[in-house]
From TrEMBL:
Originating organism: Gossypium schwendimanii (Cotton)
Name of the featured protein: Uncharacterized protein
Superkingdom: Eukaryota
Length: 43
């Protein structure tokens, strides 16, 4: 019984970590795209 709560706790921890990772990836991708667009405009 106590094992399930531990498992659930781990799952929610993983979910939070993954969503933070996605936010970080999305932000860095957006910044890269903006930089590329700027370089294209500058040409």
């Amino acid at each position: 019984m106590g094992q399930t709560t531990q498992q659930e706790k781990g799952d929610s921890l993983t979910e939070g970590y993954v969503s933070e990772l996605w936010d970080f990836a999305r932000i860095s991708v957006t910044q890269n795209n903006l930089q590329e667009m700027r370089e294209i405009w500058d040409q």
